[in-house]
């Protein structure tokens, strides 16, 4: 197994300095991500204004919001927070709890919430 | 057996045990661990919001207020701008995240001047966001219209869309919303148009135009004989009487009785709908705002350190990177709050 706790090169974050030329490339990427994030926010607002919650399209719009948000989050975490540039095992140590537990908890909350209202409506008469 | 012992390890990045797991410094690793746990806290808040949203109130269809109707005001410009202010806040936070990542990038070049410049912009962005949030809280707490709570059961006669007389009973304690306050909102075009045909109520509507919920408004409600035009909460979809096209589908008129007025929201009353809506607003955006506040403080401290040349002497700007992680995390949380509290 490859060891990753030994410092053998200058990929290590603290010494990962770069020169001006590399800086230009990195900055270009930063502005690109900025553009993408702004565009996604803009699309979300336009969708939010354009579709009422009681429209037939709402379920589709709602899921679009969630998927767009996940895209935005991925860009922030992987690009702005540089998690994409870290070692693979650090990356997945941080991301796995969310992929597993938050998805699970969301499912439970939505399921349980629905059942709670069925309880309230059907048995408690409110 | 030329294993680890023979390999070169930079002394300044070693952890106490002489290793460097994940090939990051101890400080950065711990910042990530902190963010993971902090993110779980926010997940907990948003999941409990989802519980109420999908369940208890979601099934009573449309009981939950609609973000674009509650948050539609801009400073100085009044109402009628659904979600624009929140979108601007989101954009502001994204931009300040960008200036932060530019500061980190400059740090990797040991460019003290650029780091200082971008950190200053980041701090300014943070202060602007805090100010925006303060304004939004102020606006939310003070409300934009106000409702009336009927002290006892009222029988309300009014005209529906087609001009037919209808009767409606307002139960004791039920909230009744005065409609005309929102005269500038985008939905009111249909509103006004409708009243063009509805001469019986035309008077009251135009009379109330920008009046708000001042004494004048209450007087009119107390006034006898003339029917007052009211409609139920416009922030909620099912009780709301404005349809897709912006036309009012149900008009209610109060004959008499005194209706105590409530406006805005706090932890015990909420103009916009279920009390939980206000509670979640205060707690989720408040907890996030507290993070922004501490983030600005930390950024300021690091900025001072950068200006004093502490980082330059160290030879690296990793502290900027670590506070940068925290600052991006604040942006990340807001992205989710924006979607799950305001949009969905």
Provide the fold topology.
The complex is a heterodimer of chains A (126) and B (344).
Chain A: H1 20-50, H2 58-80, H3 88-123
Chain B: H1 26-56, H2 67-70, E1 73-74, E2 78-79, H3 84-108, H4 112-142, E3 147-149, E4 154-159, E5 165-170, E6 175-177, H5 188-197, H6 199-208, H7 215-222, E7 228-230, E8 252-254, E9 261-262, H8 275-307, H9 310-314, H10 318-343
Antiparallel strand pairs in B: 1-2, 3-6, 3-9, 4-5, 7-8
Question: What does this protein look like?
Answer:
The complex is a heterodimer of chains A (126) and B (344). Helix content of chain A is 71%, strand content 0%. With 126 residues, chain A is mostly helical. Chain A folds into two domains: 1-86, no CATH class; 87-126. Chain A starts with 19 loop residues before the first helix and ends with a helix. The mean pLDDT of chain A is 80. Chain B is mostly helical. Chain B folds into two domains: 26-143 and 272-343, Up-down Bundle (Four Helix Bundle (Hemerythrin (Met), subunit A)); 147-262, no CATH class. Chain B has ten helices and nine strands. Chain B has a three-stranded antiparallel beta sheet with strand order 6-3-9, with no helix packed on it. Chain B starts with 25 loop residues before the first helix and ends with a helix. Classes of the chains: A mainly alpha (126), B mainly alpha (344). At the A-B interface, α1, α2 and α3 of A face α1, α3 and α10 of B.
Q: Over all CA atoms, what is the radius of gyration of chain A?
A: 22 Å
The main pleated sheet of chain B reads as: 3 strands, antiparallel
Question: What's the pLDDT, averaged over the residues of chain B?
Answer: 70
Number of strands of chain A: 0
């Amino acid at each position: 197994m490859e060891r990753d706790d030994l410092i053998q090169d200058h990929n290590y974050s603290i010494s990962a300095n770069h020169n001006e030329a590399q800086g230009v490339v990195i900055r270009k990427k930063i502005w690109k991500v900025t553009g993408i994030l702004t565009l996604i926010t803009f699309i979300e607002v336009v969708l939010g204004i354009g579709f009422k919650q009681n429209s037939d399209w709402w379920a589709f719009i709602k899921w679009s919001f969630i998927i767009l948000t996940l895209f935005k989050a991925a860009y922030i975490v992987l690009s702005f927070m540089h998690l994409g540039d870290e070692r693979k095992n650090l990356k997945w140590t941080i991301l796995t709890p969310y992929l597993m537990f938050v998805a699970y908890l969301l499912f439970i909350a939505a399921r349980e919430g629905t059942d709670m209202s069925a309880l309230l409506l059907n048995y408690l008469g409110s | 057996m030329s294993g680890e012992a023979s390999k070169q390890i930079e002394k300044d990045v070693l952890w106490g045990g002489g290793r460097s797991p994940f090939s990051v410094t101890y400080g950065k690793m711990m910042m990530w661990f902190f963010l993971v746990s902090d993110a779980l806290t926010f997940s907990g808040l948003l999941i409990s919001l989802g519980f109420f949203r999908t369940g208890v109130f979601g099934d009573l269809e449309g009981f939950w207020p609609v973000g674009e109707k509650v948050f539609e005001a801009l400073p100085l410009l009044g109402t009628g701008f659904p979600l624009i202010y929140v979108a601007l806040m989101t954009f502001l936070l994204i931009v300040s995240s960008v200036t932060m990542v530019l500061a980190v990038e400059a740090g990797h070049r040991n460019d003290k001047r650029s780091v200082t410049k971008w950190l200053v912009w980041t701090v300014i962005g943070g202060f602007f966001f805090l100010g925006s949030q303060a304004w939004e809280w102020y606006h939310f707490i003070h409300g934009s219209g106000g409702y009336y709570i009927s002290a006892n059961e009222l029988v309300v006669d009014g005209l529906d869309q087609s001009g037919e007389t209808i009767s409606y009973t307002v139960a004791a304690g039920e909230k009744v919303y005065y409609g005309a306050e929102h005269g500038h909102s985008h939905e009111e075009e249909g509103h006004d148009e409708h009243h063009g045909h509805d001469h019986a109520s035309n008077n009251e509507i135009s009379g109330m135009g920008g009046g708000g919920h001042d004494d004048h408004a209450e007087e009119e409600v107390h006034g006898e004989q003339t029917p007052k035009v009211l409609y139920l909460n416009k922030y909620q979809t099912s009780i709301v009487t404005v349809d897709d096209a912006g036309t009012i589908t149900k008009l209610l008129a109060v004959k008499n009785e005194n209706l105590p007025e409530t406006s805005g929201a706090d932890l015990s009353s909420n103009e916009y709908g279920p009390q939980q809506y206000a509670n979640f607003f205060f707690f989720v955006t408040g907890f996030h705002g507290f993070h922004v506040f501490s983030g600005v403080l930390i950024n300021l401290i690091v900025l001072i350190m950068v200006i004093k040349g502490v980082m330059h002497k160290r030879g690296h700007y990793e502290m900027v990177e670590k506070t940068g992680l925290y600052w991006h995390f604040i942006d990340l949380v807001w992205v989710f709050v924006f979607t799950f509290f305001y949009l969905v």
